[in-house]
Amino acid sequence: MGDHQPAQAVELIRALLHQLREMTSQLAWVERQDVTSRNGRAFAMRMEAAALRRDIHEAEFLIDRLQRRYLNGDERTQQHPAGRQPLASAPYTVVKC
User: What angle do CA 75, 81, 11 make, to 5 degrees?
Assistant: First the structure.
């Protein structure tokens, strides 16, 4: 494994965490809409929520796999460029399916 692979994994994890936060926020919005929607639209909202849950689960799986494979299971042990925070400081809300 080259030295560049862990650095690439850190950047990919960072991007996945960003997407994860966006999807989680979108899921919360969709779930609020589903509560107030009428019959025809409720089904579409539930389908969208289910797709978001699948995508969130997949993102979490990929993050975990990248951390275990390239960062020895702990992203905090890696060096971070000056001025950047470790990934562990990037909180996100986990929505269980």
Answer: 55
The two three-digit tokens of residue 79, written as one number: 């060096």
Tokens representing 90? 């990037």
How many residues in the chain?
Answer: 97
**pLDDT tens for each residue of 12-46:** 999 999 999 999 999 999 998 877 766 678 888 89
Evaluated on CA atoms 89, 78, 23, 52, the torsion sign reads negative
Quote the tokens at residue 85: 């925070």
pLDDT for 50 beyond 50: yes
Residue ranges covered by each domain of the chain? 13-76
